[in-house]
């Protein structure tokens, strides 16, 4: 059984009060802090917002606040415990007939058809309506609405709220990203024609998947490749001071190979997953290969692995250059990477990964919508209409392309950090190691050698005299 993980967070359990600086423990089947025990058994959604992580359950709704690094790690651990993709598909199953625009955890206040509504909700915006989920409650506001606008939050002027009104319904929604608000406004302000009446279907003996097999995978063009990694590594290495490289006694093309290796480590999981998706025998398997949550975990782990490789490579070169030098241990301690520097480097290496969160969240929404429509099509009659699946696949493709470019952009940002670290810190230290004076033979060793030689000469003379 895995050891529980602990996080220091500010915790808010709806219906209670905010508790600051509590020790949150993540076990195999529950969250616990203080006297609160929040079981995973009925959790149906988690949502990352700026500085917050929402957890929605049939029994409770909770929000946690911490630094972005800690929240990212907490969200990753929860997804591993909860299988977040399956939870989202389960919640969205009743909305399979609708096209999901976006979904998010949000704070809602106001009323729906005259009934007071407030607190944290999962908000799902579709082309037909706004759906609100909280515990056992499901509320719906159909488009179009009378008023839909952005407004500054009265409590915090820098935060934007989405307000809507329709008859006896009046809602104010917080914690939506600007791009989500824009997408909602574009859809909600249009009047939609009523859905076409359902036609009677002939009773089918077989589902589509039984007679047609799985839907084949279709993938977009990707930009990131081993060739782009090599080209950028060569450009980054060429930008470093050649004089320092020579004085540090590095082998020819050492930095080019080192930068390329770091790129292959950082982008390896993405390339591996793209390769697996391209070989997938079905669209469902391709989506599984490119899972957004796993890509997030891969990106974080790969960045940390790149950092470990950088520090190992530097330490190896430092040891090589300090062998045979005076006071070698002190020299290595002075020129080594300190714990404070290691911590700073870790933050800089993870920063590009954290910036990818919105793109990966978009991919997660797209893959959930695609899998819903794929399941509906394959479980339906053999001649089922593919238009909805094609639309969802196009959205997934678009999200994949954005994620691919985000990985490439993150690597370029990371490569810039690596180049700066070598040129400003590591190369100058290696130059110092290379130019440090070599170790001289200690005086006592010299005297010992002279004594041994003298003894041998005296012994030789004595042997000659005895003869």
Care to give the gist of this entry?
This protein is 52% helix and 21% strand. It has helices at 68-82, 84-92, 178-188, 208-212, 226-238, 242-247, 254-279, 283-289, 292-322, 328-335, 339-354, 357-379, 387-435, 443-466; strands at 5-13, 18-26, 30-33, 36-39, 43-49, 52-57, 61-65, 100-112, 115-126, 129-134, 137-142, 147-152, 160-166, 169-174.
Mean pLDDT: 83
- Evaluate the radius of gyration: 31 Å
Any low-confidence stretches, pLDDT <50, length ≥5? 195-206
Q: Give the helix tally.
A: 14
Query: Strand content of the residues, in percent?
Result: 15-25%
Order of helices and strands: EEEEEEEHHEEEEEEEHHHHHHHHHHHH
Structural class: alpha+beta
State the shape.
elongated
Distance between the termini: 83 Å
Largest sheet: 7 strands, antiparallel
* Share of helical residues: 40-55%
User: What's the β-strand tally?
Assistant: 14
Strand order of the largest sheet: 4-3-2-1-7-6-5
Report on this structure.
The chain is α+β, with helices and mostly antiparallel strands and 467 residues long. It has 14 helices and 14 strands. It has helices at 68-82, 84-92, 178-188, 208-212, 226-238, 242-247, 254-279, 283-289, 292-322, 328-335, 339-354, 357-379, 387-435, 443-466; strands at 5-13, 18-26, 30-33, 36-39, 43-49, 52-57, 61-65, 100-112, 115-126, 129-134, 137-142, 147-152, 160-166, 169-174. Strands 4-3-2-1-7-6-5 form a 7-stranded antiparallel sheet. α7 (254-279) packs antiparallel against α9 and α7 (254-279) runs antiparallel to α13. The longest helix is centred in the last third of the chain and has 49 residues, at 387-435. The N and C termini lie far apart (83 Å).
């Amino acid at each position: 059984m895995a050891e529980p993980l602990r996080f220091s967070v500010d915790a808010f359990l709806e219906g209670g009060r905010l508790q600051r600086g509590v020790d949150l423990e993540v076990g195999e089947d529950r969250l616990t802090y203080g006297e609160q025990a929040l079981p995973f058994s009925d959790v149906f959604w988690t949502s990352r917002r700026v500085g917050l992580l929402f957890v929605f359950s049939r029994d409770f709704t909770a929000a946690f606040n911490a630094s972005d690094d800690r929240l990212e790690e907490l969200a990753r651990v929860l997804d591993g415990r909860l299988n977040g993709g399956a939870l989202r598909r389960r919640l969205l199953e009743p909305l399979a007939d609708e096209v999901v625009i976006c979904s998010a955890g949000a704070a809602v206040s106001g009323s729906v058809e005259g009934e007071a509504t407030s607190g944290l909700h999962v908000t799902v915006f579709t082309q037909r309506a706004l759906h609100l989920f909280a515990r056992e409650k499901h509320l719906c506001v159909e488009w179009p609405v009378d008023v839909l606008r952005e407004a500054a939050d009265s409590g915090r002027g820098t935060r934007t709220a989405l307000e809507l009104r329709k008859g006896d319904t009046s809602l104010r929604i917080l914690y939506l990203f600007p791009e989500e608000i824009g997408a909602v406004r574009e859809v909600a302000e249009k009047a939609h024609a009523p859905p076409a009446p359902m036609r009677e279907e002939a009773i089918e003996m077989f589902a589509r998947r039984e007679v047609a097999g799985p839907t084949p995978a279709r993938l977009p063009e990707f930009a990131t490749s081993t060739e782009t990694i090599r080209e950028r590594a060569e450009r980054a290495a060429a930008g470093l001071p050649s004089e320092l490289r020579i004085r540090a006694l590095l082998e020819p093309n050492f930095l080019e190979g080192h930068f390329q290796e770091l790129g292959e480590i950082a982008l390896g999981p993405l390339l591996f997953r793209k390769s697996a998706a391209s070989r997938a025998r079905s669209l469902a398997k391709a989506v599984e290969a490119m899972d957004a949550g796993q890509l997030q975990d891969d990106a974080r782990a790969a960045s940390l692995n790149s950092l470990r490789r950088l520090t190992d490579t530097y330490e190896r070169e430092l040891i090589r250059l300090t062998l045979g030098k005076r006071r070698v241990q002190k020299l290595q301690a002075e020129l080594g990477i300190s714990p404070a520097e290691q911590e700073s480097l870790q933050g800089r290496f993870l920063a590009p990964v954290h910036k990818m969160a919105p793109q990966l969240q978009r991919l997660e929404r797209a893959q959930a919508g695609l899998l819903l429509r794929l399941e509906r099509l394959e479980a339906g009659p053999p001649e089922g209409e593919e238009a909805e699946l094609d639309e969802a696949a196009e959205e997934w493709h678009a999200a994949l392309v954005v994620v691919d470019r985000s990985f490439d952009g993150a690597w370029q940002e990371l490569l810039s950090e690596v180049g700066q670290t070598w040129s400003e810190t590591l190369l100058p230290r290696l130059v110092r190691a290379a130019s440090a004076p070599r170790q001289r033979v200690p005086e006592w060793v010299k005297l010992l050698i002279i004594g041994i030689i003298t003894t041998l000469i005296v012994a030789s003379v004595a042997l000659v005299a005895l003869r």
